[in-house]
Amino acid sequence: MIPELRSLGWAGYLLGFGLGGFFDGILLHQILQWHHLLSLVTRPPFQDIRVQILADGLFHLLMYVIAFIGLWKLWKARHQFGAVGGDRLLLANAATGFGAWHILDGVLSHWLLGIHRVRLDSDKLLFWDLLWFVVFGVAFVVLGWWLRRSDASFGGRGGVAALVLAVLAGGPVAALPPPGVDTVMVFYKPGTRPATVFAGIEAVDGRILWSSPAGDVWALDVKDKEKTALLYRHGAWMVSNSALAVGCLAWTSARS
């Protein structure tokens, strides 16, 4: 890496890595709904939906932190945007970071730890793992290697803007609920009276889909999302329809 462009290069690695996490969350967790982070971990305490939600939440938080650090480094390196080869280095390292995320996910999550696989509803688990590993991992690392050695220009500040927009758009989209889902997860303080919980469900015209044995986590079908704020008036301390919570419910229900 050219010493004068070191900050710009690291910004590319971090933004690409974070974008890889967002891509996985959007495509595999939301659109295709093939798995979530701990799909194959069923031993205590991981069979508890609260632990599953916490794990997914921490994973996504880590991706946001990495992307934020990448944006911060990019801002610090803004004086390097016009340098010869600066745009190429940024995009090359972003491609490498994107591929590195999928290689790490494949080796660590799929094969060493076994916490999930790419497509759990298939009888060809290894095929899908290898396909993802090659297409989104190895291929992007090779692309990054090729870009670093290319003499082509990639739009200067336009290339930088495109990468930033992809990260800024990917972050919020990764937290959206899967399409066509009316499920909300509602969390109550331990000891909340059942009468209070049921009053809230009635207030939002909700339908019960699932509840934890302790009665502090509920999954409700609520057609009118504008009504969900009423649940806070009936003892809820958090109401979520994010992909993290809803995705966990789908897999927990399927295994039960």
TrEMBL record:
The chain crosses the membrane at residues 12-32, 52-71, 91-113, 125-147, 159-177, 235-254. Keywords: Membrane, Transmembrane, Transmembrane helix. InterPro entries: DUF2243_membrane. This is DUF2243 domain-containing protein. It comes from Massilia litorea.
